[in-house]
Specification:
This protein has about 190 residues and is mainly alpha-helical. The protein contains 5 helices and 2 strands, in the order ββααααα.
Length: about 190
Amino acid sequence: MTSRFTFGARGAAGTRHESAGRLPALPLATALLTATVALYMALVAFGNMTDFDTNRQFVRHVLAMDTTFKDPDLMWRAITSHTLQDIAYVLIIAWETVAALVLVAGTAAWAAGLRGRAGFDRARWLSSAGLLMVLLLFGAGFLAVGGEWFAMWQSKSWNGLDAATRNVTVAGIVLVLVHVPGANSSAKQGD
Protein backbone atom coordinates (compact mmCIF):
# COMPACT_ATOMS: atom_id res chain seq x y z
CA MET A 1 0.00 0.00 0.00
CA THR A 2 1.41 3.38 -0.97
CA SER A 3 0.73 6.69 0.69
CA ARG A 4 -1.08 9.50 -1.10
CA PHE A 5 1.38 11.95 0.40
CA THR A 6 4.91 11.94 -0.89
CA PHE A 7 7.90 14.13 -0.58
CA GLY A 8 9.21 13.08 -3.97
CA ALA A 9 11.98 10.70 -4.77
CA ARG A 10 15.04 11.32 -6.85
CA GLY A 11 16.03 8.73 -9.37
CA ALA A 12 19.59 7.78 -10.25
CA ALA A 13 19.77 10.66 -12.73
CA GLY A 14 18.64 13.14 -10.07
CA THR A 15 15.20 13.73 -11.59
CA ARG A 16 12.11 13.87 -9.45
CA HIS A 17 9.44 11.21 -9.90
CA GLU A 18 5.88 11.77 -8.75
CA SER A 19 3.07 9.26 -8.98
CA ALA A 20 -0.39 10.34 -10.02
CA GLY A 21 -2.59 11.16 -7.04
CA ARG A 22 0.28 12.10 -4.74
CA LEU A 23 0.52 15.52 -3.19
CA PRO A 24 3.59 17.69 -3.78
CA ALA A 25 5.54 18.24 -0.57
CA LEU A 26 6.24 21.98 -0.72
CA PRO A 27 2.63 23.11 -1.31
CA LEU A 28 1.47 20.66 1.36
CA ALA A 29 4.01 22.00 3.85
CA THR A 30 3.02 25.56 2.97
CA ALA A 31 -0.66 24.74 3.43
CA LEU A 32 -0.04 23.14 6.82
CA LEU A 33 2.14 25.99 8.07
CA THR A 34 -0.37 28.58 6.87
CA ALA A 35 -3.04 26.61 8.73
CA THR A 36 -0.87 26.57 11.84
CA VAL A 37 -0.48 30.35 11.84
CA ALA A 38 -4.21 30.72 11.10
CA LEU A 39 -5.06 28.53 14.08
CA TYR A 40 -2.67 30.43 16.33
CA MET A 41 -4.07 33.83 15.32
CA ALA A 42 -7.65 32.58 15.74
CA LEU A 43 -6.85 31.32 19.24
CA VAL A 44 -5.11 34.59 20.13
CA ALA A 45 -8.11 36.63 18.97
CA PHE A 46 -10.55 34.25 20.68
CA GLY A 47 -8.55 34.40 23.91
CA ASN A 48 -8.49 38.19 23.83
CA MET A 49 -12.25 38.30 23.32
CA THR A 50 -13.17 35.73 25.96
CA ASP A 51 -10.57 36.84 28.54
CA PHE A 52 -10.73 40.50 27.61
CA ASP A 53 -9.33 41.98 30.81
CA THR A 54 -6.06 40.02 31.01
CA ASN A 55 -4.48 41.41 27.87
CA ARG A 56 -6.28 44.72 28.25
CA GLN A 57 -4.16 45.17 31.39
CA PHE A 58 -1.07 44.35 29.32
CA VAL A 59 -1.96 47.00 26.72
CA ARG A 60 -2.83 49.54 29.40
CA HIS A 61 0.48 49.09 31.24
CA VAL A 62 2.55 49.18 28.04
CA LEU A 63 0.85 52.34 26.78
CA ALA A 64 0.94 54.01 30.22
CA MET A 65 4.65 53.12 30.54
CA ASP A 66 4.03 52.75 34.28
CA THR A 67 6.47 49.86 34.74
CA THR A 68 9.35 51.36 32.75
CA PHE A 69 12.30 53.29 34.17
CA LYS A 70 10.05 56.41 34.03
CA ASP A 71 12.72 58.53 32.39
CA PRO A 72 11.25 62.04 32.06
CA ASP A 73 12.69 62.25 28.55
CA LEU A 74 10.45 59.36 27.49
CA MET A 75 7.37 59.63 29.69
CA TRP A 76 5.76 62.26 27.45
CA ARG A 77 5.01 59.34 25.10
CA ALA A 78 2.77 57.59 27.64
CA ILE A 79 -0.93 57.23 26.90
CA THR A 80 -2.79 57.16 30.20
CA SER A 81 -6.37 57.55 28.97
CA HIS A 82 -8.21 54.28 29.57
CA THR A 83 -10.48 55.11 26.64
CA LEU A 84 -7.56 55.45 24.22
CA GLN A 85 -5.90 52.35 25.66
CA ASP A 86 -9.10 50.34 25.21
CA ILE A 87 -9.52 51.60 21.64
CA ALA A 88 -5.98 50.45 20.89
CA TYR A 89 -6.73 47.03 22.41
CA VAL A 90 -9.98 46.59 20.45
CA LEU A 91 -8.13 47.55 17.25
CA ILE A 92 -5.48 44.91 18.03
CA ILE A 93 -8.19 42.26 18.50
CA ALA A 94 -9.90 43.30 15.25
CA TRP A 95 -6.55 43.10 13.40
CA GLU A 96 -5.86 39.63 14.87
CA THR A 97 -9.34 38.46 13.85
CA VAL A 98 -9.03 39.70 10.27
CA ALA A 99 -5.53 38.19 9.98
CA ALA A 100 -6.89 34.84 11.20
CA LEU A 101 -9.76 34.94 8.70
CA VAL A 102 -7.46 35.81 5.80
CA LEU A 103 -5.11 32.97 6.78
CA VAL A 104 -8.04 30.54 7.03
CA ALA A 105 -9.06 31.59 3.51
CA GLY A 106 -5.45 31.08 2.41
CA THR A 107 -5.45 27.61 3.94
CA ALA A 108 -8.68 26.76 2.12
CA ALA A 109 -7.15 27.99 -1.15
CA TRP A 110 -4.07 25.80 -0.57
CA ALA A 111 -6.39 22.83 0.06
CA ALA A 112 -8.30 23.52 -3.17
CA GLY A 113 -5.01 23.69 -5.06
CA LEU A 114 -3.82 20.44 -3.52
CA ARG A 115 -7.04 18.74 -4.60
CA GLY A 116 -6.38 19.99 -8.14
CA ARG A 117 -9.46 22.22 -8.16
CA ALA A 118 -7.48 25.43 -8.44
CA GLY A 119 -4.00 26.78 -8.83
CA PHE A 120 -1.99 28.18 -5.97
CA ASP A 121 -1.92 31.86 -6.98
CA ARG A 122 -4.91 32.77 -4.79
CA ALA A 123 -3.50 30.71 -1.91
CA ARG A 124 -0.17 32.48 -2.18
CA TRP A 125 -1.84 35.91 -2.31
CA LEU A 126 -4.13 35.26 0.68
CA SER A 127 -1.36 33.66 2.72
CA SER A 128 0.96 36.57 1.97
CA ALA A 129 -1.69 39.10 3.00
CA GLY A 130 -2.45 37.30 6.27
CA LEU A 131 1.20 36.70 7.12
CA LEU A 132 2.05 40.34 6.40
CA MET A 133 -0.75 41.33 8.78
CA VAL A 134 0.85 39.13 11.47
CA LEU A 135 4.28 40.64 10.73
CA LEU A 136 2.90 44.18 10.93
CA LEU A 137 1.08 43.50 14.21
CA PHE A 138 3.95 41.82 16.01
CA GLY A 139 6.86 43.49 14.20
CA ALA A 140 5.70 47.07 13.75
CA GLY A 141 3.12 47.05 16.55
CA PHE A 142 4.74 45.12 19.38
CA LEU A 143 8.47 45.21 18.62
CA ALA A 144 8.75 48.73 17.21
CA VAL A 145 5.91 50.73 18.75
CA GLY A 146 5.47 48.80 22.00
CA GLY A 147 9.09 47.82 22.47
CA GLU A 148 10.81 51.01 21.47
CA TRP A 149 8.32 53.89 21.42
CA PHE A 150 6.64 52.85 24.68
CA ALA A 151 9.88 51.34 26.07
CA MET A 152 8.31 47.96 26.79
CA TRP A 153 11.82 46.51 26.89
CA GLN A 154 12.33 48.31 30.21
CA SER A 155 9.45 46.50 31.93
CA LYS A 156 9.99 43.29 33.85
CA SER A 157 6.25 42.81 34.36
CA TRP A 158 4.69 43.77 31.02
CA ASN A 159 7.25 42.85 28.38
CA GLY A 160 5.93 41.02 25.33
CA LEU A 161 9.05 41.27 23.19
CA ASP A 162 9.97 37.57 23.34
CA ALA A 163 6.48 36.49 22.27
CA ALA A 164 6.42 39.13 19.52
CA THR A 165 9.81 37.96 18.26
CA ARG A 166 8.58 34.35 18.09
CA ASN A 167 5.52 35.44 16.11
CA VAL A 168 7.58 37.52 13.69
CA THR A 169 10.00 34.63 13.21
CA VAL A 170 7.32 32.03 12.50
CA ALA A 171 5.28 34.30 10.20
CA GLY A 172 8.44 35.38 8.38
CA ILE A 173 9.57 31.81 7.78
CA VAL A 174 6.14 30.80 6.48
CA LEU A 175 6.02 33.90 4.24
CA VAL A 176 9.36 32.94 2.71
CA LEU A 177 8.11 29.37 2.17
CA VAL A 178 4.97 30.71 0.46
CA HIS A 179 7.22 32.38 -2.12
CA VAL A 180 9.78 29.62 -2.63
CA PRO A 181 9.70 28.42 -6.24
CA GLY A 182 7.89 25.10 -6.26
CA ALA A 183 5.31 26.10 -3.66
CA ASN A 184 3.11 26.95 -6.63
CA SER A 185 3.28 23.54 -8.28
CA SER A 186 -0.10 21.98 -8.73
CA ALA A 187 -0.77 18.48 -7.51
CA LYS A 188 -1.12 17.37 -11.12
CA GLN A 189 2.19 18.87 -12.22
CA GLY A 190 4.28 17.39 -9.45
CA ASP A 191 6.61 19.01 -6.96
